[in-house]
Design goal:
This protein is α+β, with helices and mostly antiparallel strands and 119 residues long. It has a single domain, classed as Ribosomal Protein S5, domain 2. The chain has four helices and four strands; from the N terminus they run H-E-E-E-H-E-H-H. It has a four-stranded mixed β-sheet, sandwiched between helices. Strand 1 and strand 2 form a beta hairpin. Helix 2 packs across helix 4.
Length: 119
């Protein structure tokens, strides 16, 4: 999990949705903007109820997102404020238990890499 100072609050998320830019991958969307004055990096994960009705599954996706992003946090540009939004099929791809055929954490890692390369 990221420290609290690196996570957006609700007012900042509203501001990001009003004036941010989109970067898409197959099951993950990143909406962001960069403040030139600010040096802090603030990132959040949102899992809508359309992804899953169960809060347990939505929280699992968010926690896994923060876990993977922790490895790439230093690669983000200074002053970035952004929100990762999970898509409808995210529970099938990024949720569930780790097994030999489907490793959800490595799948999420690949998606975040793709998005960070596009920024």
């Amino acid at each position: 999990m990221l420290p609290k100072e690196n996570i957006n609050n609700t007012k900042q998320i509203e501001q990001i949705f009003k004036s941010g830019h989109f970067v898409n991958s197959t099951n993950l969307t990143f909406k962001f903007f960069i403040l030139s004055k600010n040096k802090n990096k603030r990132i959040s994960f949102i899992t809508p109820k359309t992804v899953s009705k169960k809060a347990v599954e939505r929280n699992l996706l968010r926690r896994r997102g923060y876990y993977v992003l922790k490895n790439y946090f230093n690669l983000l540009p200074a002053g970035i404020m952004g929100v990762f939004i999970f898509g409808k099929k995210s529970v099938d791809i990024f949720g569930g238990l780790k097994n030999k055929k489907n490793n959800p954490i490595s799948n999420l890692d690949k998606e975040i890499k793709v998005i960070l390369e596009k920024i």
